[in-house]
Amino acid sequence: MSKQERAARTRSALIRSAAELFEQCGYTKASLYEISAGAGVSRGALHFHFVNKADLADAVEGAAARSLHRAARGAEQGQTNALQALTNLSHTFAQLLSRDVVVRAGFRINGDAGLHTGRDLRRQWQSCVRDLVSRAGEEEALARDVAQEPLVMTVVGATTGFEVLGRANGHWLSHYSLTGFWQLLLPVVAAPRVLATLDPAGSGPPADTLPGQFKHTGDIPPRTRRCSPGPRPAAIGCRSCAETDAPATTGPRQTGRPRPSETGGTPP
Question: Are 70 and 128 in contact (CB under 8 A)?
Answer without folding.
Answer: no
